[in-house]
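Record type: monomer structure entry
Structure origin: computed from sequence
Chain ID: A
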Amino acid sequence: MATSIHTSSSTIARLSFSTTRFSGPEPGPDPKSLSFHSRSRTCLPLKYSSEGSSRCVVRAVAVTGSDQAMELDISLSPRVNSIKPSKTVAITDQATALVQAGVPVIRLAAGEPDFDTPSVVAEAGINAIREGYTRYTPNAGTLELRQAICHKLQEENGISYAPDQVLVSNGAKQCIDQAVQAVCAPGDEVIIPAPFWVSYPEIARKADATPVILPTSISENFLLDPKVLESKLTERSRVLILCSPSNPTGSVYPKKLLEDIAQIVARHPRLLVLSDEIYEHIIYAPATHTSFASLPGMWERTLTVNGFSKAFAMTGWRLGYIAGPKHFIAACNKIQSQSTSGASSISQKAGVAALGLGYAGGEAVSIMVKAFRERRDFLVKSFGELAGVKISEPKGAFYLFLDFSCYYGTEADGFGKIEDSESLCKYLLDEGQVALVPGDAFGDDTCIRISYAASLSTLKAAVERIKKALIVLKPAARS
């Protein structure tokens, strides 16, 4: 029976929540003790209990007025209980909290350029505010920005779209999320090569789809083997997600390999490709970027996702876009209209300015890429000096995905045994005060991810700390 709880100075004034475990899905992290205070000293004690495997209720007995028990269902939906929290966000937040507490942690966990937004882009945003460009825009994005995106995609990527085939969103992540929701039915499969960006499997689960993980090998530069792909496709396969340049590995798919994958895709009429190209401009010659939609026969079944966060150092502006056949983009547009609506008007003005910097972002982006390459070269050389550590040299993005499994099975005094990527990263945070992301978050527990979106001097200090922490590890004692 539904029961409403009313508060006043003469009835409920303080609610105390005490927790007990129950069988069934956990409602996220362990709940904390919560109290709601008012001036009155009367109180209503509540206790968690469970009924069945999916309900979590609070039992409440009023101590004033009535002894009738009431129940408040505080259970969460099965969908949210199926989603794992982002480990990269959690580690970044933990490292930030340590720094704010005075601990000198070097933070190499976040996927965020350390450069400022180019001045001409920032000025365009400032001018938008000054000129009163602060109202809602069309849900799909301003025509000015969508036309600029169409021009960019034609000139730089060789793919042609009309403005109504482009949707501007609050970041590329929203674009990916809406695309998977738009095309997947419950039980459909989303094919994801591993290592993968942490959000891909969870986005699939949010859409009631099933993530199918295809492992790759560091010896093959973490690139998907077309034969493995073909062996795993079924009638339920709906979306193949490709990310090139890759987060977390920095791998770049050569055009020939993409063509081989396209031939397989073409034989499966239900299979679409979501091409995540957010790192396309952060690429190191002689590697080159190929948009999947530009391959023969792939335009009709490709959803191309890109944005401004990485290449233009605009992570906080929250601006991304998706381009594809009008039928699919209209569906994404409909979802967005009932969630966030359009992206920030100010950010969209800045986005137009970013696309006006020149081919591939012009000099502003090339300066950043040059710095990223210098940092990459330093890290590859430095970690190459460690015996047993395996490296696949990144061809793009700003991540190094290193195989540190040679240290698994070792131990440190006062810490214990290093068993996997998570315990190694915890040890390096505790002992070396360097925040990294364990590879299990990306589907490969043999590795850890290092972001080199930090100054060269910071990276040098981080390498020194990491090496100092690793050198004291010793083989674990036999039990």
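Annotation 1: The mean pLDDT is 88.
Annotation 2: The two ends are 56 Å apart (CA to CA).
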